[in-house]
Amino acid sequence: MNGTINPIKLNEVIEYEDLFHETFKGTSLKAGQVTQIIYWIRPGKSFITYDIVDRHKKYVNIEDAPSPPSIQREDLSFKTSFELNQQVDIEIAGVKRTSVIVAMNITWSDNDCVVSYGVTDLTDTTYFGVLEELLERWNPEYAV
To answer: Which bin fits 94, alpha (ψ -120 to 50), beta or left (φ > 0)?
Structure first.
């Protein structure tokens, strides 16, 4: 799966005054430095959240919202090896299980971009945070 999103730039500092721009009142954004961007993909829905650090406070999973031009955004591209609703094999305690991908998270931080998945097996158990590298190891036919 390939895509591009347009989030607030990583390490961008959101000033307290930016949050009171008359056009953008009631925003969910917080003042501070954006330290992590997470793109959540679920069936029929996708959204962006941020981790924002302001001195001694850390805000996590703050939803993206319209912002004034003073807050810079950038295009971030991503590529995943797997798609939503794709059938894959996972391995639990050495036993292979057929599963379906039900969620995807793409997380950008300082020097890193990590892709993880939520997969549901035949027992209707969902495992979140399964790293793409593990799925590629268990499903070598899909490795990029």
So the answer is: left
